[in-house]
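Q: Can someone sanity-check these two? First one:
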Amino acid sequence: MPGPYITPRTFAFLRELAAHNERAWFEANKQRYLDDVRDPLLRFVSDFAPRLAKITKHLVADPRPVGGSLFRIHRDTRFARDKSPYKTHAGVAFRHAAGRDVHGPVLYLHVEPGNVFAAAGMWHPPAEAVRAVRAAILERPDDWRRATCGARGAKLDDDPHALKRPPRGVDPAHELVDDLRRTSFTSSTAFGQKEACAADFPARFAQACRRKAPLVEFLAGAVGLPF
């Protein structure tokens, strides 16, 4: 079994980056970022590919350092009030093979001090994708329930941006009205830092992904993608 991909050094670097979120500090500590965050997570992406293929052949594990599954550490501050140049977490997204610009569901790993989780689904997708998911829920309510309810379903995260009222044309008394008001469709599983640093973490992450696969499959079908 390969060694841990996430270690206490990963969290140490991210904590210090949060306290010194400036270019001069990052440049002085860039090798630590490469050694303790970027390169181990790129190795995780590459090594996770066979596990991912057993869940679906339509999501991609791309270990390229630029443009791959690992999000860049630099923040896009063009339209942000917060001009801090760096993210203080690491994120890995296994996107659909149809292309980066396709608004399909993803499997996601978030690594942050005190906040490690696996997630699946669609977070703040564009309006046309939200409408497509709502239409699929209305058309196939039993499939939606199987994907999101019960022992085998993926419990949905809270959506603080859900509509205050039902979408136009939806009966306020509809039994799935709360889901139809959603603007995001995600499900998360939290891990402790010790779990994330354990050698068996890839297996734990894969198990969480498998449990969320029915949700991802439903969402992919809603927007016309294979799973």
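And here is the second, same format, sequence then tokens:
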Amino acid sequence: MVLTFVLFGCHREEIKVYTVKQENDAIQPVNLCDGGIPGLVPHPDLKARLRMLCQLPPGWVEQAPTSMRVASFTVIGPHGQKADVGVIPLPEITGRELDMVNMWRSQLGLEQVKDDEIVQLTTRITIGSLDGKLFDIVGDLPPEGTKSPLRILVAMANYKGHTWFFKMLGDAELVAKEKDAFVKFVQSVKLPDDY
């Protein structure tokens, strides 16, 4: 399963609440800033409604989420570079970090790593009040038709039976520039306590 997160820009910090209701429930967006951007989609893997409160970094633009994503954003760099950020909660994935890292590495055309190498690739991070892990993976070669390699940032944490993934994928230079904003974003996240 591919987990992709996208970031795009708006020019002010915003606090957002995203709610996902299951199956046939009515979908109602909740936006603490201006109420004008839909931010809800049904998510087949969740048993109850989810809400994510977060602070949107400057320059990130909210996009319509997909069936897998609770939230989706785009970031555009000064030279037209792009990065995509997505937030995906899945049934809890414990002890599968190696599989996940190797999946992300394969997206960038990199060789797989072994179990004893995963510790070197893992950085501890807080996601809201949760202990999480951050992975930073940089491709070696630009994809065909582009000038820059790709880079992936993924923060993940387990919470109440789900693993929440926050993933940024895009131009390596832009992702490096946005890394601090990405870290602040995931640190600002508040996850629901009622599911």
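A (reply): Looked at the second one. Residues 1-12, 18-49 have pLDDT under 50 and may be disordered. The chain has one domain: 14-188.
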